[in-house]
Amino acid sequence: MLSLHNAFIDAQPASQLAQRFQAVRAQTERLIEPLSAEDCQLQSMPDASPAKWHLAHVTWFFETFVLERFEPGFKPFDAGFRVLFNSYYNGVGDKYPRPRRGLISRPSLPEVLDYRRQVNARVLDVIARTDEADRMQLAQLITLGLQHEQQHQELLLTDIQHALSFNPQCPAYAGRWPLASTAPQPVRWHAYGGGLVQHGFDAGLDGDFAFDNETPRHPAYVAPFELASRLLTNGEMLGFIADGGYRRPELWLSMGWDWVQAGQHELPLYWQGEAENYRHFTLQGLQDVDPNTPACHLSYFEADALARWAGARLPTEFEWELAARLLPASGARPGNFVETGAFHPLPQQQASVDAPAQLLGDAWEWTQSNYNPYPGYRPWEGLVGEYNGKFMCNQFVLRGGSCATPQGHVRASYRNFFPPDAQWQFSGVRLARDIQG
Amino acid sequence: MLSLHNAFIDAQPASQLAQRFQAVRAQTERLIEPLSAEDCQLQSMPDASPAKWHLAHVTWFFETFVLERFEPGFKPFDAGFRVLFNSYYNGVGDKYPRPRRGLISRPSLPEVLDYRRQVNARVLDVIARTDEADRMQLAQLITLGLQHEQQHQELLLTDIQHALSFNPQCPAYAGRWPLASTAPQPVRWHAYGGGLVQHGFDAGLDGDFAFDNETPRHPAYVAPFELASRLLTNGEMLGFIADGGYRRPELWLSMGWDWVQAGQHELPLYWQGEAENYRHFTLQGLQDVDPNTPACHLSYFEADALARWAGARLPTEFEWELAARLLPASGARPGNFVETGAFHPLPQQQASVDAPAQLLGDAWEWTQSNYNPYPGYRPWEGLVGEYNGKFMCNQFVLRGGSCATPQGHVRASYRNFFPPDAQWQFSGVRLARDIQG
Amino acid sequence: MLSLHNAFIDAQPASQLAQRFQAVRAQTERLIEPLSAEDCQLQSMPDASPAKWHLAHVTWFFETFVLERFEPGFKPFDAGFRVLFNSYYNGVGDKYPRPRRGLISRPSLPEVLDYRRQVNARVLDVIARTDEADRMQLAQLITLGLQHEQQHQELLLTDIQHALSFNPQCPAYAGRWPLASTAPQPVRWHAYGGGLVQHGFDAGLDGDFAFDNETPRHPAYVAPFELASRLLTNGEMLGFIADGGYRRPELWLSMGWDWVQAGQHELPLYWQGEAENYRHFTLQGLQDVDPNTPACHLSYFEADALARWAGARLPTEFEWELAARLLPASGARPGNFVETGAFHPLPQQQASVDAPAQLLGDAWEWTQSNYNPYPGYRPWEGLVGEYNGKFMCNQFVLRGGSCATPQGHVRASYRNFFPPDAQWQFSGVRLARDIQG
Amino acid sequence: MLSLHNAFIDAQPASQLAQRFQAVRAQTERLIEPLSAEDCQLQSMPDASPAKWHLAHVTWFFETFVLERFEPGFKPFDAGFRVLFNSYYNGVGDKYPRPRRGLISRPSLPEVLDYRRQVNARVLDVIARTDEADRMQLAQLITLGLQHEQQHQELLLTDIQHALSFNPQCPAYAGRWPLASTAPQPVRWHAYGGGLVQHGFDAGLDGDFAFDNETPRHPAYVAPFELASRLLTNGEMLGFIADGGYRRPELWLSMGWDWVQAGQHELPLYWQGEAENYRHFTLQGLQDVDPNTPACHLSYFEADALARWAGARLPTEFEWELAARLLPASGARPGNFVETGAFHPLPQQQASVDAPAQLLGDAWEWTQSNYNPYPGYRPWEGLVGEYNGKFMCNQFVLRGGSCATPQGHVRASYRNFFPPDAQWQFSGVRLARDIQG
């Protein structure tokens, strides 16, 4: 039996669940409106998937984990889809090889949209008919499916940007550029006292859902530190480049330097042109590089080198989470998550005065924390146990969401993760530094 | 100035040229009728191209080599297409990287079809208006463009078969299977006397067009030999497999054996299943292997191993051409191409009695001849000089056309060529053997 | 100016320093006694180096970091060696490519031994002549050089084992097998209370030297846990294999399962043969697999899978260090490293009764801790700053030393590190598990 | 039973055979005199082998093909050598993987030299004792073994040059540079009439031994042609480079251009430095590039591009052989190899006046002929049948021997062969061109 025991989810009224289901599902289809069937077919690298595959895979998730369990007399929409749209669940059976997803022209986009429609109707039917006894289980699995679909909404955007970038005619996905320019201002530093702090998902603070990798809530010691008031910008990246940043091994991790040399990296992903005249490919097509917009599409290697060049370092995920918890808007109180008596007061407590900007929803912020299990971590039981845990190796945690993350999807305890060479996400840099005792 | 001086082409009446132009162009579009825009987007390996790319590239050929030269006030349909749909002409300028052709979702299929329509109209206009002085040049280039398009018609079929083969649902391209089964009969041997024989394109024998690689006509000595009465069949391939053919190094060229091991080849391309029950993927979908149909989709390595296993060898391209010339139906007479006095009569001349079957239009026949320039070979002048000559390295000649070759495209002097590991063409085997003196 | 400010090193009398220098240097030469010049030339993979290169590189370290600084009128032994025997110090200049170290036949082994002799004499001379003012600096750098040489002593052994393993005649390096078999006994569990614990190098506990990566000493929270009484053995590995361990994806990290499939791993490194009759290649030649000897030469992936199969997990490096500190023999007291008032007492304190065996010197123990900088970490200043810090990415910490680690080299705070696919070290597994609150 | 039926070898007196055996075997050992055991261990790429391996492999050849057959009560020197020193004879059994030959430190060089001594003594004993009935067979196999050893003598030199080239200290193998500079003189052209010409080994012309690939002698038609009076020189290569030869795709075969780009080739192998100051690594160490010395270490791609740049082409192997046969010194008469009545006289016959220089023994001359079987070719029977035939794919024929070829080893019918990207042989270019009829 499936049990998402680590996450706290209230049973919801059926009508509310149905409404959320419809809203998220509709949003996915809205994302492909600017795309043709041919666009939706593109796969530009093994790590990215065609938009059509995303549309089908998230539907497969509901079919496999919800309908198969809760629909009386379940029959699959198409028996072949079980293999074709399985991503990585060995427990479910065979999978179509990931690097070949772009070779699946059939089912066509219209057929996949039909698949979505039929599964939607059947899930709504299941929601309406499931009795009290199974309601909690059902709500948990549907909620998981919707969170999963939201993750794929973001991937759909990053993957289509990557795919379109190979077209020399630089087609635009949309008319507006998702990352906002801000008024130029120097980085300021926000100081935080450290101590033995509680980390991880807390239903009271973070809402009604979390992935298993955000649990269990647990104490970890954080030393006093400072966090930058904003993300690093393209302007600072221009300074790094002008200063020979891509040619100076002393700024890079050894593995990062190998990466620079093997890939002949001289500019961030999507950048082209010459100094004074750089342009970059965005979802809005080819654009001038704006110095006041957060730098993004950076690998961990680039983020780490940029931080070293700036005389600082990347934050740990616990430092980031501590700062995010202390946002005035979040209503959080230190008492909720700091062990009594263990908090180190700062000489001048600045954290409560104002808070760093851009913590949520601009660009994912690389942390220096490896994507590891929290102490006492247990993967979900059942087939969905493969969701997160098996990826805890050679990846780094990113925090805070990006301009491509769906509204309401991210929270202070949310842990995204990518290998250190991944560039195609909306990933940026916020600096941190130690407070010398 | 362009000059296809090696090939013999009469100036034709404009109306006849226009008619041929329209017929070939229409045939290409007929080939994609069973395909969706998504199907036409697929590229399954660097050596294969999307159907949409084929449609556009052959049009680019007319735009670049005909319109640009003959149309007054020429303006390109889209300046970006010059790079996007250039295959390999360094003289024309930059080329979009071949392995990424499948990443071009825009222009869309409808846009490419519109490109075709507009270029068609403009070429027809040029045909109607070009005066006598340029007529020959124009006819030559249009004829070349049409021959070129016919080559891509065949590639379009082999490439789409390859692409669809990655779909686990084994979609069929068409309802009929292109290679015909024949009544079972053992291989018989046709004997040919040798001598100093003329090879290569002869306008009197071969019609009004040849590629430069078929010229110049030249003498080469052929020793007496025998040629098999038919192509090898799937039945014989089954025998090879059952006899451990894919596991016995002594049957293979050294490089072929490396290929078997590196690719873990145990069956021909597109075959699957177990002995007694093999099926293979065809343009008609997944089918039982019919033992009386010619074996095809064989690499040179497989063809060579199969011949060695059968106690014979592959023919040379000159042996094949000699036999094809002696076909009763061709009306050829030895006097036309054998040096006087140099022909070695056979004790019992069998060649005139009947002729080998399946010489033309079933499966391309691998020869043991490397794709080399004929003595005195000169590539065409001008930009089209890159058409053939620069590929004369590490490729083998195939002769005779296949079930996917357009009607009327192939001739006795026609030289197709592929590297020895290429499997995805309709390539088969006809045996030859020496006549011991 | 060089400054190893993070490590605590007393100025030593010159005579004592000279004596230690001579002892360590002599030990390295003792290690190659069983080897021919040809053996010392072998490089079997980019990650491993020829024995001759080790001999020369550790000497280059003294020449570059000691003689160049302290020897009046310094002239290099051979100017080309600066490049040839630089491992990874970009600050020192060019480096000969690592994967090609096996292609350096000249200097010969006798020439390298002569290089050692001359540098030894010059270093001893420097030790004798350096005055008080520089004595501390000199002692620090020589101590670092000797610690460095000891690290290479272990690598020399693991690298030569790897190289000799490619010889089908399975030559033995030495007559004795370094890992000891022990009396069979089941794994028992030692329980530890957690709390906010001090980690990292402490001069009072750990002696007079540490690498920069062991510093600064800092608090980290450890939850109550249990640690296995001994390392896992070949007997347990046999159980894992017999239970289909190498064929069950659910036991592996996703990246580990990719590694199993890509490398077609079915047995641990150096194992061969069939069930009931496995043998493995050791420094002693080909040997039967003894079920009572610790399993070693395991990758992190294998260690992690083995732990999951056993229903447990790998320890963190902090759990391991806590247990190592509590060894009765070490004389450590909790008071030295546990924050006052923060220690969680266990219901039944077992840790003081007896201690886990094999914590030091049998096989390196994979931890689930990534090789990350400790909070507040600063690399050494100067050229030796490249020693450790730049490798802190995609590596895991191993603790405790192995049978190939030089006597006295390892300590409770010592952090070894390798990527998760590395197998050729003497790396094994000790299980840990949570204590459920 | 072994039978080298294609080659003509007289039974020789035992004493003469023994004398030749000793001379060739001793010469191999003379070649390694400048080398240390470590030098003899080097393998710098899969295509090259360690000198020690060459020493052992040629001995294995005698042990396997001579002793095993002719020595009563044969016992192998070391049973493991059968696998270790087998190059590519599947019929003999397993082979040690070629790319790992450099990992075999044991047997040591002294042990391999001892292996040579013992096998030498046993072969001499067999020669002395074999009776009349087997004498012919024995002489054939020993002769083959000696020819084989001479081939490896040349490879030993090219392989050690390649290996030493990776040493930044550029060690010299020997004190003299093997390719001679000549007085500067422009290329002149020697004209040859064509016709139906006999090619291949002729005992009367070529002596008492040939490899199977030189047989059978057979007619082939050659059109009138001209051949350059000498090899192209470094001076002409300098012109090619200065003229942008490595940057102009129109000079290259398509596959050659891919090779240039993939390998970032800008200079010939072993060249370094800047224009006006090029140096190249030779067996004599690093030397200035002498413009009057034949260019060598060229790939087929480079040779073909150089010829195209010079407005000429590479000769066919039949053109080369025809010219080599007509050397005044060779005493050949057209009557011996030109079909009666088929020779095309030239208006002004120049061939008899003087002959091209450097045809034998300076640098191997790339021909445009693929390494194909001659019509009627049969590999030798028995195990040595793997000697040549299975390599007839994707290789080009080189003719004439080089400065590294042993004295007396090469002849007019001799066919060497390498893939078109091979550079490390002493391979150069002689131009040819058509005579327009």
UniProtKB/TrEMBL annotation, chains A, B, C, D:
<keyword id="KW-0408">Iron</keyword>
<dbReference type="InterPro" id="IPR017806">
    <property type="entry name" value="EgtB"/>
</dbReference>
<comment type="pathway">
    <text>Amino-acid biosynthesis; ergothioneine biosynthesis.</text>
</comment>
<dbReference type="InterPro" id="IPR042095">
    <property type="entry name" value="SUMF_sf"/>
</dbReference>
<dbReference type="InterPro" id="IPR024775">
    <property type="entry name" value="DinB-like"/>
</dbReference>
<feature type="domain" description="DinB-like">
    <location>
        <begin position="21"/>
        <end position="155"/>
    </location>
</feature>
<dbReference type="InterPro" id="IPR034660">
    <property type="entry name" value="DinB/YfiT-like"/>
</dbReference>
<dbReference type="Pfam" id="PF12867">
    <property type="entry name" value="DinB_2"/>
</dbReference>
<dbReference type="InterPro" id="IPR051043">
    <property type="entry name" value="Sulfatase_Mod_Factor_Kinase"/>
</dbReference>
<dbReference type="InterPro" id="IPR016187">
    <property type="entry name" value="CTDL_fold"/>
</dbReference>
<dbReference type="GO" id="GO:0052699">
    <property type="term" value="P:ergothioneine biosynthetic process"/>
</dbReference>
<keyword id="KW-0560">Oxidoreductase</keyword>
<feature type="domain" description="Sulfatase-modifying factor enzyme-like">
    <location>
        <begin position="201"/>
        <end position="433"/>
    </location>
</feature>
<protein>
    <recommendedName>
        <fullName>Ergothioneine biosynthesis protein EgtB</fullName>
    </recommendedName>
</protein>
<dbReference type="InterPro" id="IPR005532">
    <property type="entry name" value="SUMF_dom"/>
</dbReference>
<dbReference type="Pfam" id="PF03781">
    <property type="entry name" value="FGE-sulfatase"/>
</dbReference>
